[in-house]
Amino acid sequence: MMTVFVSIAVIFMSLCFWQGLSIYQSFHIRKYVKLAAVNISQEITVNIENRILALTRMAQRWEVGGGTSWEEWTADATNYVHDYSGYKVLGWVNSKYEVCWLVPESDPKEFELINLLLEEHRTISETTKKHQNPELTPTVILERGVKGFLIYVPLFVREKLKEQLSVSQSKSISQYQHQNAFDGFIVGVFQTQSLIDSILDEKIKREFAVEVFEGRNKIYRSSDIDFDSRIENRWSQEKEIKIGNVIWRLRIYPQPAFLRGEYSPFKNFVLSNGLITPALLTWAIYLMQSSQKYAKEVETKNRELANEVRERQKVEEELRDQNKALESAVVGISKLDVSGHYLKVNPAYADLLGYKAKELKGSIWQQTVHPEDREKANKAYERMLASEKAEIEVRAVRKDGSVFDKILVMVKAYDSEQRFSGHYGFMKDISQRREVERLKDEFISVVSHELRTPLTSIRGSLGLLAGGVLQTRPQQAQRMLQIAINNSDRLIRLINNILDIERIESGEVQMNKQICDVANLIHPAVEVMRDIAQKAGVTLSVNSVSARIWADPDRIIQVLTNLLSNAIKFSPSGSTVWLTAEVKEARISPQQQGNLNFSNSSTPYILFQVRDRGRGIPSNKLESIFGRFQQVDASDSRKKGGTGLGLAICRSIIQQHCGFIWAQSTENQGSTFYCQIPLSQEKEAATTTTTYSGESLALAKDNSSSSKKKSNTQQTSKVLIVEDDTDLAQVIISIFQRHGIETYHAKSGQEALEQSLALLPDLMILDLTLPLLSGFDVVEKLRQHKHLSNLPLVVYTAFDLSEKDQKRLKLGKTLLLTKARVTPEEFEQRAINLLKLVILEDKES
Ligand code: ADP
């Protein structure tokens, strides 16, 4: 805006200045032309007057000489004609008005012309003669087209005056006119054109067009005029020329060449500058603004480009991340074209199918689906085409032909213009899930069978007893009771096994490993099985060795017991079951090596063998029987009372000891179960007392005196039973009452605390899951009590306690027993033994 304003102002000022210069220039030219007109008119006047004067002098000489001889006059006249330009002729006309002499030529025509003119201007010549003054005639036509005029100078002769005139040359004509006797005229005939041409300066003629008018009659016009009416109209100047009685009008106007010289380029320079400068300024500003705009546009573009580059980098980074994620994804991902051929697969996809990624490229997807499932997969593909996405579980075929279960999600793919471009395939191996599902189904079917069958037996036998129909038949009643007891044991075994395997395999059960003598492991196992073997008519043959291993004794005894139990179960009566242990150097077969976790294969190990002469195990079952709920014959559980979990538990336990368990068998000849555990590298075994009860006896060797001060016999001993289950509490009360022990029952933790304070019992039997206060809380509170902090305690719980829990539950002498893991008989024996020990120590103190 500012630019436009400045430009307009500059243009306006330039125009004003230019206009000023134009006016000044015009004024200057006009003045010059006017001056020239004055000069030219003066010049013409003076020149003609000079000629008149010269003729007058000639006349004076005539007068002084009383006439002039022809020769003298001709010479004189010739000089005149020569010296003064413009003459056509110069002549002497006598007093009778006859032309006598003519210079330069005496052509008769000239005479005639002069005569004619004399006639024509008789009046003038008469006036001249009368006034004795030279006189100019108006313009005459000298010959065709040639204009001119005549000057008459009268001649008078007076002798006397000749002398006077010679004295004073400067006297005027008027001074002597009255003394003359008329002697004719000197007549000068002038051609106006040539006369004025000779008068005018060449420079004047170049610069101006000169015209002379007499009245309306143009009598002179300078030659070589560049006629331009506009110049003429604008610049012409007029001036009057008065010579005698003749009045001429001079008119001049400048020639273009002159004007060109007069016109100052400065004016145009100003104008052009005045126009060009703003134009340039505007253009420069336009360019500047354009360049600024362009620079801004470039800057914006650069910013946009930088943003675009950043965006692209971000997108590329995201793509890289996505690619990385795709590359490292555990799920198989593939991209396929519209015809179902692989375009790209991630490593997981190729790995799952046993191919290399590039091997799959170009192949058809149905090739990786089990032939029997292809129709199903094709239907899913159709569904995907119709509804964007489809999910299906089918069997996949690996490159090597092996089969696995997979879940396949097909998602329709589109290109950037939203055209269908194929599909994505997301694949996951669900073999493990299928296996788990299979195991779960199997577990439920086995467990439901295993639980319902003994429960039905228990319920049936107890129902008969409760109905009273067997009151008269005590033998049958006893048999029913035995059935109930056996099936209860079976149920307990099943539940313990299930819980065991879950906990062992999940690593929940910590192995309480210690240095154990092998003999101390074999002996209790055999002791537990002795009665059973006896009942089955099987002889147990044991061959032990003295060696030390780093093991959890209870768990190893559990393994040996299970192996012996199986061997006895499947041996015919009268046969022998052998249990041997021997130390071996580590020489492990390649087949075994893969399954062994020995940290150092050169470690010597103890090899247990349980051998029987039973029915044997088919070779294809030798490995599977170590799986859960696996039995050689489905009827084994029913016939032999097993659960199919024993060997699975054994394998878990042995594996946790960095050992290995396996079986060899010949059908109908017998089986041998091998179990090897690395020997302890300790030189000297720690002197730790090992127990093999199946439970940990957390005996605190606390020799401080019991809080119980009074000496009691068994009959006066008080036992506080803390159990919220009334039935179980009643069974426990009965057990102690059989020994004449005073019993008290608390149903909650709070009651347990109150009764403990009131009774100061000799022993407390404590369940852990109690209302209000838990068993843990009860122990915690009793620990803080002065008289009860050393109270002997039997924790009788359904939970398998961790080491940490065991520590938390320590009070006085503390025994930890798990319900159903110990039989009621075992419970009775241990609790009574503890009470006896306490009483004995009290007495001693
Ligand atoms: P169970 O509680 O059924 O005995 P196990 O896991 O201990 O469970 O044994 C699994 C199966 O292995 C048994 O049911 C039986 O079929 C087979 N088996 C185990 N030991 C022997 C053996 N010594 N002789 C023959 N078959 C055996």
TrEMBL record:
Residues 390-442 form the PAC domain. Residues 288-329 form a coiled coil. The keyword Membrane applies. Residues 446-681 form the Histidine kinase domain. It comes from the Bacteria. CDD domains: HisKA, PAS. Residues 718-834 form the Response regulatory domain. Keywords: Coiled coil, Kinase, Membrane, Phosphoprotein, Transferase, Transmembrane, Transmembrane helix, Two-component regulatory system. Its EC number is 2.7.13.3. The modification 4-aspartylphosphate is found at D767. It holds the Pfam family HisKA. Its main location: membrane. Photoreceptor which exists in two forms that are reversibly interconvertible by light: the R form that absorbs maximally in the red region of the spectrum and the FR form that absorbs maximally in the far-red region. NCBIfam families: sensory_box (TIGR00229). This is histidine kinase. It comes from Mastigocoleus testarum BC008.
